[in-house]
Amino acid sequence: MRRVLSFFGAPGVMLARTVRAGTREGVPLREVLAQVHELGGRSVWLVTSGMAFFGAVLVMIANAQAKKLIGNVAVLGPAYFEMLVRELGPAVSALLTAARAGASHSAELATMSVNEQVEALEMSAGDPYADLVAPRVVAGVVGVPLLGVLGTLAATASAVLVASLALGIDGRAFMDARYVDGWDLLVGGLKVLGCGLYIPLAAAVAGLKARGGAEAVGHATTEGVVAASLGCLLIDLTVSLAFQFVRL
pTM for the whole thing? Predict the structure, then answer.
């Protein structure tokens, strides 16, 4: 139990220290832009291509279920689109980002810790939380929601194409937004925003505590990806349960 609390609580402590340091020292804009490119720009291809494959699989599952249950996939299309906007688009996009950006952040910070560059930064009056962690957190809050939107659009487009070209059914049924309302957009937005905040924090916790050599860097990278991915799933579940309770 203590290990579980530490696993999920350490990013909260990291956030408090980062906010305090960022407020006191300021956040370097150049480093923020570099991290936006590192997290967002370098993850675009993975998220959009991964979500395109995911959308194609999703429409084939819908088609198979429609044949078994009601015989008309157009009836299931709007429900699948709502699920994509509210649940699957934000969650899967965040997991793909956690896999790439979480590994990158963890490995970079762990390498700096092992090579004592973090200690050197502190000795030169720098603050690791303001100079290293805060720009990554800002980049996550900005980049992950944008990636979630792009990923959802890619999944929708691939679903329409596969439905129209491969399955010979009306692909426009999967763009029917009759069931999507403001609550769905709010739920999806909160999920990607929460994941964008959590991914850099989990990676920073794993990276900054690394000590030793190359083995420690590998361990920190693995730990960062696992923590970021589990955190995204927990955020997804928490937001879904909270809004389910509110709507009831």
Answer: 0.89
